[in-house]
Amino acid sequence: MSLPLLLVEQAVRIGLIEDLGRAGDITSEAVIPADAVVRCALIARDAGALAGLDFARTAFALIDPSVAFDGLIADAARLQPGDVIANISGNARSILAAERVALNFLGGLSGIASAARGIADAIAHTKARITCTRKTTPGLRFAQKYAVRCGGGANHRFGLDDAILIKDNHVAIAGGIRPALRAAKKSAGHLVKIEIEVDRLEQLAEALDEGVDAVLLDNMSLDQLRAAVRMIDGRAIAEASGRVTPETAPAIAETGVDLISAGWLTHSARVLDIGLDFQGA
């Protein structure tokens, strides 16, 4: 599993420019000999799932192409504390200059992958899949959604332009479920899917009567979700959202929904602790 390197390089370059600032790594230049060479390793300190190895590799390569980066574990692999993810060797100043940006990407994306993996494992006995939302860090949506896939999750739409998702505010402004759906169908191209958010079974009945590709069942109780799945009866994709945690996800999945969406996967997942440990000269 990988991303186009052009996208990866663009994001990493921005991170390095931000970190190096106007004068570069003045600390390393002051205290590390220019010709110092070191060996080090990226090591997992927590259990989880790996994502972002190419981001780390690219950070070192952009600073100094002569730095050797030997990845030992692929993205989407499960990690245990102590696992060596990659061995790195080369100029000490170069490695130190790239270290923080490499670890920021690797730890952040692996944290998202690990969160997704935790829920994917918890609902593996059902047909449901865990999916992310558009609640992402601006500029890094492609990377964070990639990390969700590395953790066994699925991606919701990538932006406002690739699917029609009619939410509660759209419904209110449009004048209701029916007028909103009818207007959407008039506008949508033949390849554009339409999903609508409902929080009551009465709204769901209206949506199904009009016809829709997917229904977002928002903050419904387990009993309501079970009733909604029976009403839908395969006529649309059933997506549940609201109050999703690793503890609540199994019961939600067992109601028979097709998808469970959780915004916190990308906006609040805990960073996975990965360190750069020096092994010697």
Order of helices and strands: HHEEHEEEHEHEHHEHEHEHEHE
Structural class: alpha/beta
H/I helix tally? 11
Number of structural domains: 2
Strand content: 15-25%
**Biggest sheet statistics:** 6 strands, parallel
The share of residues in helices is 40-55%
Strand arrangement across the biggest beta sheet:
6-11-10-9-8-7
Shape: elongated
**Top-tier CATH class of the largest domain:** Alpha Beta
Q: Can you tell me the CATH topology of the largest domain?
A: TIM Barrel
Mean pLDDT: 97
CATH structural architecture of the largest domain? Alpha-Beta Barrel
Strand count: 12
Low-confidence stretches: none
CATH superfamily of the largest domain: Aldolase class I
Separation, N- and C-terminal Cα atoms: 33 Å
Computed CA radius of gyration, to the nearest angstrom: 23 Å
Report on this structure:
With 281 residues, this protein is an alpha/beta fold. It folds into 2 domains: 127 residues, Aldehyde Oxidoreductase, domain 3, CATH 3.90.1170; 147 residues, TIM Barrel (Alpha-Beta Barrel). It has 11 helices and 12 strands. The strands form 3 sheets. The chain has a 6-stranded parallel sheet. Strand 10, helix 10 and strand 11 form a beta-alpha-beta unit. The longest helix is centred in the middle third of the chain and has 31 residues. The two termini are 33 Å apart.
